[in-house]
UniProtKB/TrEMBL annotation:
It comes from the Bacteria. SUPFAM superfamilies: Glutathione synthetase ATP-binding domain-like. It holds the Pfam family CP_ATPgrasp_2. This is Circularly permuted type 2 ATP-grasp protein. InterPro entries: ATP-dep_Glu-Cys_Ligase-2, CP_ATPgrasp_2, UCP005522. Residues 83-459 form the Circularly permuted ATP-grasp type domain.
Length: 483
């Protein structure tokens, strides 16, 4: 193996699983080809590649929005040029675990909106379900096509200090980020065209075709060419780039609420040739804004009467409405029990140990150990509303405790997981930064398919454990190697 100044200066973080270096300071075999390749590149050449990546992201409009930023609306999504590499064996384990988990979560959603056996048998407490703001009584006894509620899932995975994979959270409503997975791969092809085939990296580019195939299969009308639309909140949404990308790659219409109308319990799209019936809606609008007649009456993003058309079975909606009850962080605690209850199997992927602050004993324990905890709101996302106990002042902790005491059910706590580290190209040198992984699973009438890869998010600030783009994180290409 080539000696390289980049890797000689690399200092793994003590007590943290390093994706590239083993415990004996030897480079893991699946990184060897990448290291040999990079060893032949001068810092000047790598700097040029990094600059090219930034220019490509800017020219292609690969951006996201930070609402609380004073710098304007859109920002380039930071991209690290060094790939995160996963072996075939590791991926097989992850894939099997995600399929098991999603099968159970889908069964849970069907059950909780129909017979509620899991509540009657005391596996999940009734008050946890009924106090969840995303449990929608409007979905009770509503039949969804093929009993599939979660058509698209983004399952956030992390690795602890010993390399064990844990599920950090389930995203089952309108998971975002898949366009960055696709664009990261396209950028990598430009930067390292020879390296991908040399390393036998599996492709992720089939994702739009797989999604389109699943959407077609959901059409309630037996027509050869169903009308599929992607419903977006519009240009000011943080993921608007993703909406345009997916609509373009699938060849479907990108619409907003004002482009659709409901007549006689059927949904129509306004076109220059008149109204065209819509069969399937891939929506990126949250539940509460979908239908002002049923949910938020002031919503300008949805379509009046959409829920009536959905209830009649005249339109399929992806993901199903009401899925938030399954990815509520207070319900997350019970997913291993769901797997045992519905599938009679032991969970393949572990949950992070989680304390419910609505439980007085667990709340007392968390308050006593809050410096070692991450406390989260049960229905926030994007890294907002978190307390990182080890990095917070006494005043911040006290203020957060007061919030918890007002509504303890709305909070959970988890021990601070170290998060694995991966080499990143930072100012001309390689340095370890913390990462997570969001693989994307597609559930259709014919089963669950997962493209080999996902979005690896990176906490680019040194010492940070927060990978969300809204909190200063970036991403890198995720390589899953073939057998």
């Amino acid at each position: 193996m080539q000696e390289s100044g980049y890797f000689n200066k690399y200092n793994p973080i003590d007590g943290v699983w390093d994706e590239m270096f083993g415990a004996d300071s030897n480079i893991r075999e699946h990184y060897s080809k990448v290291i040999n390749y990079l060893s032949l590149e001068s810092p000047d050449e790598l700097n040029k590649k990094e600059e090219l990546a930034k220019r490509l992201f800017m020219s292609q409009g690969i951006t996201f929005t930070v609402y609380n930023s004073g710098e304007g609306i859109e920002k380039i999504f930071p991209f690290d040029i060094i790939p995160r590499i996963i072996t075939a064996a590791e991926w097989a384990f992850v894939e099997k675990g995600i399929k098991q988990r999603l099968t159970a979560l889908n069964l849970f959603l069907k059950d909780v909106y129909h017979n509620q056996f899991i509540i009657k048998d005391g596996i999940v407490p009734i008050d946890i379900i009924y106090s969840c703001p995303h449990f929608l009584r409007e979905m009770y006894q509503l039949q969804v096509p093929y009993d599939v509620y979660v058509h698209i899932a983004g399952i956030d995975l992390i690795r602890d200090f010993d390399g064990t994979f844990y599920v950090l959270e389930d995203n089952l409503r309108t998971p975002s980020g898949v366009s960055y997975m696709l664009e990261n791969r396209e950028i990598t092809k430009r930067l390292f065209p020879d390296l991908l085939p040399q390393c036998n990296v599996r492709s992720v580019t089939e994702y739009p075709a797989l999604l389109y195939k699943n959407l077609l299969a959901l059409s309630p009308r037996p027509v050869s060419n169903p009308t599929i639309v992607l419903l977006s909140p519009g240009i000011y949404n943080s993921a608007y780039f993703e909406h345009t990308t997916l609509a373009r790659l699938m060849g479907v219409e990108l619409v907003e609420g004002r482009d659709l109308v409901v007549d006689n319990h059927k949904v129509y799209m306004k076109t220059t040739n008149g109204l065209q019936q819509v069969d399937v809606i891939y929506r990126r609008v949250d539940d509460e804004y979908l239908d002002p007649l049923v949910f938020n009456p002031s919503s300008m993003l949805g379509v009046a009467g959409l829920m009536g058309a959905y209830r009649k079975g005249n339109v399929a909606i992806v993901n199903a409405i009401g899925n938030g009850v399954a990815d509520d962080k207070a319900v997350y605690v019970y997913v291993p029990a769901m797997i045992k209850y519905y599938l009679n199997e032991e969970p393949i992927l572990k949950n992070v140990p989680t304390y419910q602050l609505g439980n007085p004993d667990e709340k007392e324990y968390v308050f006593a150990n809050i410096n070692k905890m991450v406390v989260k709101k049960t229905n926030e996302s994007g890294g907002y509303g978190m307390l990182m106990g080890h990095a917070s002042s006494e005043a911040e902790i006290e203020e957060y405790k007061n919030q918890i005491l007002k509504a303890p059910r709305n909070f959970i706590a988890q021990p601070t997981i170290s998060l694995s580290a991966s080499p990143c190209y930072i100012q001309g040198e390689l340095a370890p930064r913390r990462i997570d992984l969001r693989p994307y699973a597609l559930c259709g009438p014919h089963g669950i398919e997962i493209v080999p890869g996902g979005l690896t998010r990176v906490a680019l600030k040194e010492g940070s454990l927060v990978v969300n783009s809204s909190q200063g994180g970036g991403s890198k290409d995720t390589w899953v190697l073939g057998d």
